[in-house]
Amino acid sequence: MTGSERILQIENLTKIYGKGESRTEALKGITFDVLKGEFLGIMGASGSGKTTLLNCIATMHRPTGGNIILNGEDISGFGGSALADYRGRKIGYLFQEFELLDNLTAEENIMLPLSLHGVTVKEAESDIRAISALLDISEVLDKFPSQMSGGQKQRVAAARALISNPDIVLADEPTGALDSKNSKILMDKLADVNRRQQKTIMMVTHDANAASYCSRILFIQDGCLFHELRRSMQTESVSAFYERIVSVMAQLGGGSANVL
Asked: First vs last Cα of the chain: how many Å apart?
């Protein structure tokens, strides 16, 4: 991480679905910061609010209250071209199920966010080659999704999320559709991107193995922050951090909100 510069501020964020007896508080006033260059994990049980949180930041859902501030700008005030620019350039989104277009090659899928903003393949060629080499997908650039393995598809999806050099990458259960081998490959690559490019990544996951690559983890329970873990990047191994993550996961349903 580069010092303590805040890139994202979540302030008293609430999200309510429905009314009356069907009213559900998915987020109950969550507040936290994300630092520039941080690899932040968000964990919690199904229905805890973690994906709702990610989707509010991605502007897929509109929060009921609170503020989402990226690089000093409150995104709640965005509309029109400002909102399109935010979605296309300021954030990258990595989906659990890849969400690649079947009739486009890997290269064309990676190019999609740039194409929507008028950037040509020729203009982006060097960036495509660089990110493809980093994610080890150079050999599939001319292939269609049906010709790729699940691991290759997800790394192509990761390249698409990164190609516009967004301020922050949002990843929703990125290992959820992968086997253990391909999950490790993907997480190694994302950690490498985070380390080499100081790219800020915010990842929702239920997978303790994937979460162990993070520098910090926030645990959400019933729409509230329940616990926080910080990894000592200089002295703590991935395996040691994994053990602490598993310990907190076992406590979900009770306990304090202390930082361990």
From this structure: 19
Dist. CA 52–CA 160, nearest whole Å:
22
Half-sphere exposure of 250 (CA within 13 A, CB side): 6
Each as own residue / partner, the long-range contacts of residues 75-84 (CB below 8 Å, 24 or more positions apart, any chain) are 83/59
Cβ contact 178:2 at 8 Å? no
* Percent share of the chain, pLDDT over 70: 96
How many CA atoms lie within 13 Å of 256's alpha carbon, on the beta-carbon side? 4
Q: Kindly report the pTM of this predicted structure.
A: 0.90
Residue 194 has pLDDT above 60, yes or no: yes
What would the two tokens of residue 215 be? 């520098």
5-14, 112-121, 124-133, range with the lowest pLDDT: 112-121
Contacts of 94 (CB under 8 A, 6+ apart): 154, 157, 158, 161, 169, 170, 171, 172, 174
DSSP secondary-structure letter at 259? B
Would you state the pLDDT for residue 253?
A: 53
Q: Would you say residue 84 has pLDDT above 70?
A: yes
- R_g over Cα of the chain: 18
Report residue 78 as tokens.
């965005």
Helix residue ranges per DSSP H, the chain:
50-57, 80-85, 106-115, 121-134, 150-162, 180-197, 208-211, 238-251
d(CA 223, CA 15): 9
The SS3 of residue 105 is coil
Do 64 and 14 touch, CB atoms closer than 8 A? yes
**Which residue from 161, 166, 170, 135 is spatially nearest to 42, judged by alpha carbons?**
170
